[in-house]
Amino acid sequence: MRVNDRISVPEVRVIDDAGENLGVMPTSEARELAKERGLDLVEVAPQANPVVCRIVDYGKYHYQQEKRDRKQKRRTKLKEVKFTIKIGEHDFETKLNRARDFLSRGDMVRVSIFFRGREVVHASRGRELLKRVEESVTDIARVEGQPSAKGRILQMMLVPTQQS
């Protein structure tokens, strides 16, 4: 996070301490405005065009960000749901509901497909099963990365889209 003099872009979009959009202005003018109010100019969206900055007390802002990150890290756990390619429809629905339950609580879910014996030659059926799982949970989760094969196991990670 860049603050005050470390912000090197020529123009920034400024949001004041009350959350009101003050518009686009030169960075030097935004710094002066922050200094007049006894606060700091903090870059909050460096990827935006123009860069978005907030006029806030940096110490307080940084503390709030750390607190939010700690809370999110503490809540997120990794759960695993295991399938085989010969799974019955009812068993599939039961395990899918379990995965949906984990995702709705904010946990990440690793979906694993185990191949037994010569089943490993039917990796395409495993990928189809992962695709079915993915399509069934698109309303509450997204896939992180591509499905990966590790020996006799095919895996994919599901991450909840909304945090409650």
Please provide a written account of the structure.
The chain has 164 residues and is of the alpha/beta class. It has two domains: 67 residues, Translation initiation factor 3 (IF-3), N-terminal domain (Ubiquitin-like (UB roll), Roll), CATH 3.10.20; 85 residues, Translation Initiation Factor IF3. The chain contains four helices and eight strands. The strands form two sheets. It has a four-stranded mixed beta sheet. A four-stranded mixed beta sheet has the order 5-6-8-7, with helices on one face. β5, α3 and β6 form a beta-alpha-beta unit. The longest helix has 18 residues. The two termini are 26 Å apart.
Write the layout of secondary structure elements.
Blueprint: E1 11-15, E2 21-26, H1 27-36, E3 40-45, E4 51-56, H2 58-75, E5 78-84, H3 89-104, E6 108-114, H4 123-136, E7 141-150, E8 153-160
Parallel strand pairs: 1-4, 5-6
Antiparallel strand pairs: 1-2, 3-4, 6-8, 7-8
How many domains comprise the coordinates? 2
Structural class: alpha/beta
Q: Report the β-strand fraction as a percent range.
A: 25-35%
Q: Give helix and strand order, one letter per element, not per position.
A: EEHEEHEHEHEE
The largest pleated sheet is described as: 4 strands, mixed
Mean of pLDDT: 90
Low-pLDDT regions: none
Tell me the strand order in the biggest sheet: 2-1-4-3
